[in-house]
Amino acid sequence: MTILNKLTYSINDYDFRSIICDYLNIIQLDNIFIDQKITRSNNQSTEYHKRFYNSLDNDNRLKSLYDDFISKVVKNLFDEEIIYQVTPTFRLQAIDNVSVFAFHKDTEYGHSDKTINFFLPITKCYDTNALWVESGSSFEPMECDYGDLITFDAVNLLHGNKVNKTGKSRISLDFRVMKMVDYYETSKKTLSKNRRLVLGDYYTK
Q1: What is the pLDDT of residues 83-106, one digit of tens each?
Q2: Judging by beta carbons within 10 Å of its beta carbon (0-12, 13-18, 19+), is residue 10 exposed, middle or buried?
Q3: H or E element that contains 58
Q4: What's 52's DSSP letter?
Q5: What are the strands, taking DSSP E only, across the chain?
Q6: CA-CA to 176 of 20 to 30 Å: which in 106, 110, 121, 128?
Q7: pTM of the predicted model, to two decimals?
């Protein structure tokens, strides 16, 4: 089973999509093509990633909405204190491209085996524009749509992308959560932003 938990939330209360349209300065999020192959070195530095993160640094609408979403939606899934990723990760799987450069498990990049991954689609995810997750001896697409929130076992299951041949780009946000009781100090850092995987840098309460 690739999906551990799937729930829906109100896109009227949490309209991530319109803010991201503003950040990227585009209206149709599912029609993006980029003229470069996604690799290890550029998977978080395309033109659209730069637009997103630059806007995030200068406009607090998305961060405020995200913090409220964590407080009122995600936190309710737990019966104890949690910590969460300060800034959600922006993912773009453009047409005829991939979103991440290789299939992987998150422990390969220093993340704790106690980490809980959340996937927040902003556009429809299906077939080859979806995230593919290990399921038994094969892989399955994690199909979902805007208004869904999914947790999956990115720590223990291989996951990644196939080349997107759907003709529709996929945009999503992902973030990590950990129970406070499972937290410990580490010297590990993220691959793309070089942030330490500790409270006060990568994580916050």
Answers
A1: 999 999 999 999 999 999 899 998
A2: exposed
A3: helix 47-58
A4: H
A5: 5-8, 82-85, 89-93, 116-121, 132-135, 138-141, 148-152, 159-160, 170-179, 203-204
A6: 128
A7: 0.93
